[in-house]
From TrEMBL:
Transmembrane segments: none annotated. One of its GO terms (molecular function) is protein kinase activity. It comes from Micromonospora marina. Residues 1-20 are annotated as: Disordered. Residues 1-11 have a biased composition (Polar residues). This is Magnesium chelatase subunit I. SUPFAM superfamilies: P-loop containing nucleoside triphosphate hydrolases.
Length: 496
């Protein structure tokens, strides 16, 4: 009987000193363990060494991760339940790092069978005929993770398997297990398999997973298969009362050993750490601007104008930071173009000035209210007011950050800038040099920049970012007036 063979896959090259036959494997002291035993042993080893068990996971150290660890130690399959953008998929994918780096397999086995524990008739026959001379291969842990995004068109064949008509046409009988084309779940045997958005699977498809979770075998059409699958099954789901796209059927939910509820970052520092880790910034975004965005995301989540069932994804704050950085880069590019044009016209002003480095300012955050409104589900009564609501929450977040960062400082030097009819102009296309020229020497500026984490020797762009933040904070706390001109410039002046 021909054995089922695996498709060609690109796998990391194993070290040359690993055993190549079953006899060598036994002589090396290798012992067979199930996937769940392997995960348990490796998790305990990382606990003992103090190594990070889930690198890259932010905000779950004291809440979600202990529950995940208890589920792994208990050998439970699990479902992660939470709103969008809470890092469920990332957490699931991190589980693969707890597997052994290399594991022995029977070469060509589509089910990644262990040479000490073959499960298909063909592999058992091969092992019996070759004994200790059975050749073995090595599979890297990166190849032992499988994932399927549940979609309404997902079939039982996709997940479990189906009859392969080509093999039938080759002359095999319908009862021959070699005529089965195995689906994603059995192909991840001896690994971790994830189903994302499990409720989106049609209920009749969910039924196909019942045996996998309980009896640990599969059924394909009329075949009598007793293949003891060895895997950890993990699923993710949004709260059913929000998605309305389906539900996890009760018998399937009962078969998961653990249901773990995820959440958004519980405090601004964790939100800020997540932004720093995930955002791909094309310009410098000072810490105080990132803090404003972190508070903004939290304020949006807690706003009564926003549908609490939908949540506000962590991707909202990340995209906001990337948008603000892009606004700073745009200003730098436009100012460079304006400077080149001024130089070409013979004025000499642009050619003599230094290029504007891309550093984000608080004024750049205004751009996120329009570009990111599609990421937020508003209550029905707020239709048409989405940008207005977001703009109000952004101002609130800016004022909160201003108070948190600069409380107790003497800012009278800044209010004096606009005394007796004076004004300071800033805006999207106002260069740092122009802003600094307007304010000159400001008493207390060094302390402000220190509080904002801009250091003892900030660049002109960083100093301009700090100054603009103070001016906006003083306006929001009703100590300065503010007007926006037809050309888009922002003018700070006396409130009177």
């Amino acid at each position: 009987m021909d054995r089922v063979t695996a498709p060609n896959q690109v796998s990391p090259v194993p070290p040359a000193d690993l055993p190549t036959t079953l006899g060598e494997l036994r002589a090396a002291g290798h012992r067979y363990r199930t996937v769940k035993q392997e995960l348990r042993d490796n998790l305990l080893a990382r606990m003992g060494s103090g190594e990070d068990r889930f690198p890259g996971i932010v905000g779950y150290q004291d809440t979600v991760l202990p529950e995940v660890e208890r589920a792994l130690l208990a050998g439970h399959d699990m479902v992660l339940l939470g709103e969008r953008g809470q890092g469920k998929t990332r957490l699931i994918r991190s589980l693969g790092a707890l597997l052994d780096e290399w594991t022995p397999v029977i070469p060509g086995s589509v089910l990644n069978e262990h040479p000490m524990h073959p499960i298909t008739p063909a592999s058992r026959a091969l092992a019996d005929s070759t004994g200790d001379d059975l050749p073995i291969g090595w599979l890297h842990r990166s190849m032992r993770y499988g994932e399927k995004l549940a979609t309404p068109d997902t079939s039982v064949g996709d997940l479990i398997g189906d009859v392969d008509p080509i093999r039938l046409a080759q002359g095999r009988t319908l009862g021959d297990p070699e005529t089965i084309h195995f689906g994603l779940v059995p192909r991840t045997n001896r690994g971790v398999f994830a189903v994302n958005e499990l409720p989106d699977l049609a209920e009749r498809i969910q039924v196909a997973l019942l045996n996998v979770l309980e009896e640990r075998d599969i059924q394909v059409r009329g075949y009598q298969l007793r293949l003891p699958l060895d895997l950890l099954l993990v699923a993710s789901a949004n709260p059913e009362d929000y998605t309305n796209r389906g539900r996890i059927i009760t018998p399937l939910k009962d078969r998961f050993g653990a249901e773990i509820r995820t959440h958004y970052p519980l405090d601004p520092d964790l939100e800020l750490a997540l932004i720093r880790q995930e955002a791909d910034l094309v310009a410098v975004v000072p810490e105080h601007v990132l803090e404003v965005l972190a508070r903004f995301a939290r304020d949006v989540r807690e706003s009564p104008s926003v549908d609490p069932r939908s949540g506000v994804s962590a991707r909202f704050a990340i995209a906001a930071a990337e948008t603000v950085a892009a606004a700073a880069l745009r200003r730098s590019g436009l100012l460079a173009g304006a400077g080149a044009g001024a130089g070409a016209s013979g004025s000499g002003a642009g050619s003599a000035s230094r290029p504007e480095a891309p550093v984000a300012r608080i004024g750049d955050t205004v751009s996120v209210t329009s570009t990111l409104r599609g990421k937020v589900e508003f209550e029905s009564g707020e239709e048409g007011r989405e940008i207005e609501v977001l703009a109000h929450l952004l101002r609130t977040a800016t004022a909160e950050t201003f108070r948190a960062r600069l409380a107790g400082l003497d800012l009278s030097g800044f209010t004096a800038l606009v005394a007796e009819g004076g004004a300071v102009e800033t805006g999207e296309l106002v260069s740092s040099a122009e802003l600094l020229r307007q304010v000159g020497t400001v008493p207390g500026l060094a302390k402000v920049l220190d509080r904002l984490g801009l250091g003892d020797a900030p660049s002109p762009e960083e100093a301009a970012a700090g100054i603009e933040f103070v001016l906006e904070g003083l306006h929001l706390t009703r100590r300065l007036g503010k007007d926006v001109t037809d050309s888009g410039r922002t003018v700070y002046g006396d409130r009177d």
